Amino acid sequence: METPPSLRHPARRTVVRAGACAAAALAAGAAPAHDAVAVPAVPTNPQAPVAPVAPRGPAADLPLRTDTSTQGDILAGFRKDHVCLLFVHFRHPGNARRWLGRLVPELATTDEVARFNAEFSKARRMRRGVDPTTMSVLWAGFSLTHAGLGLLAGKDPFPAVPPGSTAEAFAEGAATRAEQLGDTGPSAPDSWLFGASEDEVHAVLTLAGDDARRLAEAVDRHRSALEQADAAVLFQQDGATLPGALRGHEHFGFLDAISQPGVRGFDAPDPATAGTTVLGRPGTRLVPAGEFLVGQERVGGRPAGLPAWATGGSFHVVRRLAQDVAGWWDQLGECLDRLKRSGAAPADANPTWLAARMVGRWPGGAPVATCPAAERLPLPGEDIDGPLDFRNDPQGWTTPLFSHIRKSNPRAGLSLAPGRPPLPAADLDARRIIRRGTPFGAPLGRAADGTVRPAASDEADTPRGLIFVSHQADLVEQFEFVVRRWSNERDFPPARNPVPGADPVIGPDSPAAFESPGADGGSRATTLSFHQFVRTEGAVYAFTPSLPTLRDLAKGRLDDAVEVHAGTVLRPGDTLDAGAVRLHFDSSGDLVLQDDEGRPRWTSRTAGSGADAHFSADGLLTVRTSAGRTAWSSGTGGHRGARFLIRPTGEAVIVEGNRTLWRAGRTQRRR
């Protein structure tokens, strides 16, 4: 059944989103992602034997680690050697709902995946780094596109789609936004293997496991079930960890899955750093969980502005990135010769020396920043990113400003202009993303120094690359910002002369300024020319819902009331739009519930005194003065777990279960 036109392009409305504006101070040309990759993974075969797992830790300390309502790949990570993604199109909503109802019990939860991973890591440590052969499991994850959500729910999933919002990005889809992400020419959607039409892909089913044979059996079983539900598998994307010495590496030859962000409430904090970093990983900052999981507290308490169905879920980006490995390495010879002639590279430097500076790491993962002369393999259990910080390398003399890991996550080394002090690392927390990816295709052969050996034509033509997967709470301010404003932007870091150039690993064709110390003590630049050897062959914007939301969808239900989550702070200019009604904190300090024409239906009457509005974890909504005093209160404190909803029916409510604690804007019936 074709998606109705009304579900494809929901009504837009011009709305000021101060949540994004508050983050703009952060942004001012700054905002991160990272340079990591992991592999996807709950059991896809309920009868399959599952290895024993560790007992649960205290939920009060790390409550997200024992969450049984969220899907397991978002925070815990499947991390399996073999993965398969099925891109699905549903022909009939009723059949799709029945199929989904049967799938939900098989989906992995955070609790299951986290406990398995902990036990697996423990066994691996006992085996001195060797994977335990007796522990094997199959995981499944599921996400839906905008068209898929609309088909299952029978209505548009958003009551309103503010311009510039993540809801708009999600509704438009990856193909519509391809040009602004640099997916043009050979990477344009008309050549994609999947995702070229925003209504084509309804769902992505991720299957992952330790054993390739068992995974193949699971894939066959799920394909058969989809066929019986009158659904079509539009494309099957297989991936696997590279073999031998390249295990854990991507096809260019560099170790991946290194620099993932820590997540508050999931990763243990380190008391030695006042809880700002992950215990045992001093180089990894702890980021508020709401940057990855909708419904948790975000940096600065920014509002999510999303419907209740999104709570407990995460936006899911999938991209098939083809890598021309031989071409990428071939370009290094000419660039290295130019650097040697200018004196910017040692006379004995080999192509790996330059490749490491393009990536920002040596092939084994060690940062160039901490061992610039030659690669150093990390000690067992060592956090190789512990001392990594670009703060003391403002010119990029050690780690070039254009290097991949510096463009995608500047850490504490981002200066908005030469000579200005760098921004604190915390200012970039709102730009981080969690990556779950895996290579596809056979690797090219390697020479002793790690460079690619000349390949036979059939070997060079074999499809290979990376299945890029990321999870984030905001498509626009996280994934898209990093790609558009950092990786693809030649003038980032900003205001430098000459400009640094685009990311030489995943960015477009670009000149690059390789800066090195000059004779006068200043910086001199050698201009290099890097070409693009990564091509987009498919992309999808999806959403990984919580299990409660999926159970509702299996019954044809979807709660599209906009939810204001605990810890949210509304500041002047913030607007949360639920279609027929919207909650607005105006510049005068008044919290106002407006109808769709901007007329007030309710007001807190705090104009001239209100500075912000806050919804607390115990269910209390307050408008606060600049001194932090209460100017107005809903009087609903003491109800921990209460929910604040702005309903498309025209009212704002604070509810506890089925009980309404506070209501504003309810239409009075005439007698």
TrEMBL record:
Q: Which cofactor is recorded for it?
A: heme b
Q: Which UniProt keywords apply?
A: Heme, Iron, Metal-binding, Oxidoreductase, Peroxidase, Signal
Q: Which Pfam families match?
A: DyP_N (PF21105)
Signal sequence, start to end: 1-33
| Gene3D superfamilies to which the protein is assigned, alphabetical | 2.90.10.30
Domain spans labelled DyP dimeric alpha+beta barrel: 71-228
SUPFAM superfamilies noted in UniProt: alpha-D-mannose-specific plant lectins, Dimeric alpha+beta barrel
- PANTHER family this protein is in? DEFERROCHELATASE (PTHR30521:SF4), DEFERROCHELATASE/PEROXIDASE (PTHR30521)
Family per UniProt?
Belongs to the DyP-type peroxidase family.
Q: What is this protein called?
A: Peroxidase
